[in-house]
Structures are given as C-alpha cells and as structure tokens.
Design a protein that fits this description.
This is Lipoprotein. The chain has about 350 residues and is an alpha+beta fold. The protein has 8 helices and 22 strands.
Length: about 350
C-alpha cells in the first residue's frame, strides 16, 4: 500500500487530468454526433461520475474525495470506538447525534488507510498527512474537479471506439464504475469514443429516481441539474443546523396557528416551548405554575427544504401540532412553517 508521501501529487494528477493539453479535435463532427476525444466534456463527465464515491462516510472523515478503509479506531466526543464494518456506522451517528448543539470532535488513531477517488489505496501515518489530503480535496471541490456523486450510471453500458478519421474500430462493454473510470483515465489521444445511447442513471437524493439519457448533451443536462440540486441540499442542510441552534438556544411562544382559516394561537397563550439539545421539548404553563409540563420530541431534517417534526402527548391542543412542518422562513426571532400535508395549515413560533 502506498505511503502518503506523494499523496497530493497522486490525487491532483488524477483530478486535473482533463484540464490540461486540450485536444484540437472537434468532438461534435463525424458520422456519430456523440463522438468524443479524451479531453472532451463528455470524457470529463464520465470520469468524474465514475470516480470512487467517498461521500458515504462524510460524517466520519468530513470529505467526499476519499473514504476510510475499515477497521479504524477513533475517539468521538471523548468516546473511543473501533469500527470494524459499515454496520457499526450507527454507533458513530448515535454519538454525534446525542446532542444537537454541541461541538463534535473526531480524533483518529494513525496509521489508517483510505481509498481515493481514483481507487488508489493510501496509508496515512499522521495528522499532518491527513490534513494534506483534506486540503487536496477542498481544492478539487473548489475547482469542480471532484467526483460527481449525484448521478450514478447504471451498468452495463457499451462504448464504441473510432479512429481519428471517424471510422468505427470496435466496442467495449463496461460493467462497473471502476472499470469505466479506468477506461476513461487511460483513453488515448489517438482515438475517439462514443457512448451507445440510450443509457440509464440513478439520481441520488431523489429516492434513486431512474432517468434515461439519450445523448452527450442530455448527459450534461442531467449532471448540471443534479449538481444544482446537490448544492440546494447542502444549503438546506446548513439551514437545518442553524435552525437547530436557534431552537435549542431560545424559548418560544406560538404566535400563530392557522387551521381551516382559524387562528388558534389563543389556545397556547399561557405556554412557552423549550427545545433541548437531546431532541426533547416541553411546553410549560407560565400562568398556572402548578400545571404539568407537556412533554414532546422534535426532529429537524432537510432535503431541498428544511423540515421540523413535532410530537406532543397528553394535551389535545398541542397534539394538533403533531406533524411535519416545512420551514418557509426563519430568523433568530421567528420561525414560519406550513404543513407538509396541507399548505393552508401554518404555524409561527416567536422567541420571547
């Protein structure tokens, strides 16, 4: 297994292989309108979408350009744990999710091994080398040269090969992402290629929706769309974290609860709601201090939007709030929401 001494060179050479030495071949000419050179946008799309997807363990290593090879030992929020296989990832997530507004910390025991986007396995011997990998990943993301993880091509697919005179010279059946990456990474400048369309792909983050792709242009369009959705999902995730912080750090009253065009906020006028960092919440009667608190739980989630789910028990009025709400706007002072099942039902919380 390779040492990390040349890690940055290895990673950046792979990532930037399509950004230099642009070929003068017009990839849109010839008998096949989808004929491409090794430096074409389609070649770039195919290689990036077939890179090793390291995003599945981002909660652990914080970078999607590589994944940690198990087993690995880490201290997570002062708890040491050895992860033998992926089924134990829940142990890590449970520790990280125990509190919502704490500063999570993960310290790895070195050496550890990772798999890079180019399927190279590298051993990292100390924190300095790990930081070098992190910096290389950030540079790739900033230059949009990292893996495309939002679109997974479904295999097998067939690639047709052509001479520089646009005469077909053969074909190859590609059976996997790694095979496609290797093929595109090694494709020479003395030949051309074309995908035998149509092909299909699965879009991540959308219940693995399967789409049909009919051309190079269609492939580019699908990638552009899914990357845009990917950016929106990342923004929603950041907003969800901000909302959690606001909820935990404040105390709220129900400013408005509109159902069937009737505002029932007066039913909650005597109560404040506190959200704890263990995902529990309680409504406290500030007028009748002898009344029992109304206990509940909450969760904050995100997709393209941010959602707040409430569950109260033991009080009919508060049980009416038990549903998943889409957050339409929020600030440190006010949170506005609408029901995910009926947009006419709205709820506004204000901080006191």
């Amino acid at each position: 297994m390779k040492n990390l001494k040349l890690l940055t060179a290895i990673l950046l050479t792979s990532i930037f292989s399509f950004t230099s030495c642009q070929d003068e071949i017009d990839s849109e000419n010839g008998q096949n309108p989808n004929t491409n050179s090794a430096q074409s946008p389609t070649a770039n799309n195919l290689e990036r979408s077939s890179m090793h997807d390291g995003s599945f363990d981002d909660f652990l290593d914080g970078m999607s350009c590589s994944s940690i090879l198990l087993p690995v030992t880490a201290t997570i929020n002062n708890t040491e744990i050895t992860i033998i296989n992926e089924s134990q990832y829940n142990l890590v997530l449970n520790i990280l999710g125990e509190f919502t507004n704490d500063n999570d910390s993960i310290e790895f025991q070195f050496p550890l091994s990772v798999m890079l986007n180019n399927y190279t396995e590298v051993q990292i011997t100390n924190q300095i080398e790990y930081d070098e990998l992190m910096n290389a990943c950030e540079q790739a993301e900033q230059n949009a040269d990292d893996a495309i993880n939002c679109l997974d091509i479904n295999f097998p697919i067939t690639i047709l090969t052509y001479s520089l005179n646009f005469e077909q010279t053969g074909s190859i059946i590609i059976e996997s992402k790694q095979q496609l990456y290797t093929y595109m990474n090694n494709f020479g400048n003395d030949e051309l290629f074309a995908i035998n369309y149509p092909i299909t792909a699965s879009l991540a983050g959308q219940s693995n929706t399967v789409v049909e792709i009919s051309s190079d242009m269609d492939l580019q369009t699908k990638i552009t769309q899914c990357l845009s959705n990917d950016d929106a999902m990342k923004e929603a995730e950041e907003n969800a974290q901000n909302l959690e912080d606001i909820l935990v750090e404040g105390t709220f009253k129900i400013e408005s609860f509109i159902n069937a065009s009737i505002n029932s906020a007066n039913d909650y006028a005597d109560y404040t709601i506190d959200f704890a960092n263990d995902l529990s919440c309680k409504a406290e009667n500030i007028v009748n201090t002898t009344a029992n608190n109304i206990e509940g739980t909450y969760t904050v989630a995100s997709e393209l939007e941010v959602f707040l789910s409430l569950t109260f028990s033991g009080n009919t009025a508060f049980e009416l709030l038990n549903q998943t709400w889409e957050v339409t706007s929020y600030s440190e002072n006010s949170i506005s929401m609408q029901s995910t099942t009926n947009t006419a039902i709205t709820l506004v919380l204000t901080q006191i």
